[in-house]
Design a protein that fits this description.
Order of helices and strands: HEEEEEEEEHEEEEEEEEEEEEHE
CATH class of the largest domain: Mainly Beta
Helix content: 10-25%
Number of helices: 3
Distance between the termini: 77 Å
CATH topology of the largest domain: Porin
Structural class: mainly beta
CATH architecture of the largest domain: Beta Barrel
């Protein structure tokens, strides 16, 4: 009899245990809360991952066109995402419930502002199961900061000194500046810490006549290398926006002035200039438009004086402004960078 009771107990115990495991009222099955974060496909801001936190703890670095499941303990939470601007969502998460959080970025000119919305469970489930989004594991924001950057920038500005070159048919003077003009270059930078930065720029810039003439032309072209230590001024933490206030030294090379007056009874002239040192100061605003990309807008003041050299020149002149031109000027810059 005892053997029979033992056999019945051995048969019924797994059944009872299995039933308890499958019982939806089991405490273990409802101890956690399921939170789905999803982000619909959007070309604008697609390069930026949304760092979403719950009560200050990062839970997912959400990619574009992705969804992620996060299991949380029941309780009150502030769900947030900061990108210079911050989005917040306060929820009381109930045990055994499933929540769907729509995450998105409203893109502006420089960067974006995040958004978080609680979605109806039926709509949220349909989006997750619709197949248009890819599943993403709970990837956290990497601790490593990309301190180096490499980019291209364009520049345009005005010089402080002008040289009279021609008189047009209206008896008006047409001038040439040895500063300012348009150009561009390559910029490498390294952010030492939150408040200090170093950069090295290699650039080309050229200026032309104050207004074009049909039968004459003139230009002044140069190349340069600039070294710029800068103070970083973070904006709202500095993760997405910052200013760089810097100054340093520059070296200007291959300065060349070309004047073509052959159609006015003159000649073609070429004046060469020695390598010349200079000083500069700059203020740059930088904004991240993706995890590894940024763009910048800046202003730059520079001071340099050139000295004529007969080597490579075709003519000699006694005109002081041509022999020792002032190449100082004021430029605006726009740049695009890759961070690594």
């Amino acid at each position: 009899m005892k053997k029979l009771l033992l056999l019945i107990s051995l048969i019924l115990f797994p059944l009872a245990y299995g039933s308890a495991q499958n019982d939806p009222t089991n405490a273990e099955s409802i101890a956690s809360v399921r939170v789905y974060f999803y982000r619909l496909p959007n070309y604008m801001g697609s390069g930026v991952k949304m760092n979403i936190s719950m009560n200050g703890m990062s839970v997912v670095h959400l990619k574009n066109a992705s969804w992620c499941l996060y299991d949380a303990e029941p309780g009150e939470y502030i769900i947030s995402c900061s990108m210079g601007k911050e989005a917040k969502l306060k929820l009381d998460l109930q045990a055994g419930h499933v929540y769907y959080i729509k995450s998105y970025i409203n893109m502006g000119y420089w960067s974006g502002s995040p958004g978080l919305e609680l979605t109806d469970s039926i709509a949220g489930k349909a989006i997750i199961e619709g197949g248009s989004l890819r599943m993403q594991l709970s990837e956290l924001k990497p601790n490593r900061v990309n301190k180096s950057r490499m980019g291209l920038y364009m520049t345009g500005g005005v010089g402080f000194e002008t040289i009279p070159m021609f008189i047009d048919e209206n008896k008006e003077v047409v001038t040439l500046s040895t500063g300012g003009g348009f150009g561009g270059g390559l910029d490498y930078g390294y952010q030492i810490n939150k408040f200090a930065d170093l950069s090295l720029q290699c650039f080309y810039q050229g200026s032309t006549l104050s207004r074009p003439l049909k039968n004459a032309s003139a230009s002044f072209n140069r190349m340069g290398i600039s070294f710029t230590p800068a103070l970083v001024i973070p904006i709202k933490g500095g993760e997405y926006y910052r200013f760089r206030l810097g100054g340093g030294v520059s070296v200007y090379q291959f300065g060349t002035m070309k004047v073509d007056a052959s159609n006015t009874g003159g000649d073609k002239y070429k004046y060469k200039y020695l390598t010349s040192p200079g000083l500069h100061a700059s203020l740059v605003f930088s904004s991240n438009f993706s995890d590894r990309g940024s763009m910048s807008l800046g202003v730059r003041y520079y001071n340099v004086n050139y000295k004529y050299t007969s080597e490579g020149s075709t003519h000699i002149t006694t005109e002081e402004k041509i022999n020792s031109p002032d190449g100082s000027g004021f430029d605006f810059t726009v740049g695009y960078y890759y961070h690594f």
